[in-house]
Amino acid sequence: MTVQYHDPKARPSTPAMPYGLAAKLEGAIMIGLLANGFPDSEQFLDAVETSVGKALPSVTFKRYNKRNPSIRASDELMGEIANDCDAFISAYGH
């Protein structure tokens, strides 16, 4: 008896496209960290900040928390982040 293995992954229907956005990580950079309100999203961002901070010691961080995972971030909050930060990371916890 011969055993055959099948790869269950489907072939992509569209080609992968390069992601064109990037932050220039030179000089003094402020990175915004947005917790979405799920449990542990802030703790996850603690680990992100530690890891990124080790790799890029000149980077500083500013924390944000939308407090309610079931609603989108307000225009005011997103405007504040856009005005204050050079880059942005959002986290989902559970």
Looking at this protein, list some descriptive labels:
single chain; 94 residues; alpha/beta; 3-stranded parallel sheet; 3 strands; 20% strand
Explain what this protein looks like in three dimensions.
The chain has helices at residues 41-55, 75-84; strands spanning 29-35, 59-65, 87-91. The protein has 94 residues and is α/β, with parallel strands linked by helices. The chain has a domain at 29-91. β1 (29-35), α1 and β2 form a beta-alpha-beta unit. The relative contact order is 0.27. The mean pLDDT is 89.
Distance between the termini: 46 Å
Q: Structural class, from helix and strand content?
A: alpha/beta
Percent range for β-strand residues:
15-25%
- Percent of residues in helical segments? 25-40%
Order of helices and strands: EHEHE
What is the approximate shape? extended
Could you tell me the mean pLDDT? 89
User: Helical region count?
Assistant: 2
Give a short overview.
This protein has a domain at 29-91. It has 2 helices and 3 strands; from the N terminus they run βαβαβ. It has helices at 41-55, 75-84; strands at 29-35, 59-65, 87-91.
Could you give the topology of this structure?
Elements: E1 29-35, H1 41-55, E2 59-65, H2 75-84, E3 87-91
Parallel strand pairs: 1-2, 1-3
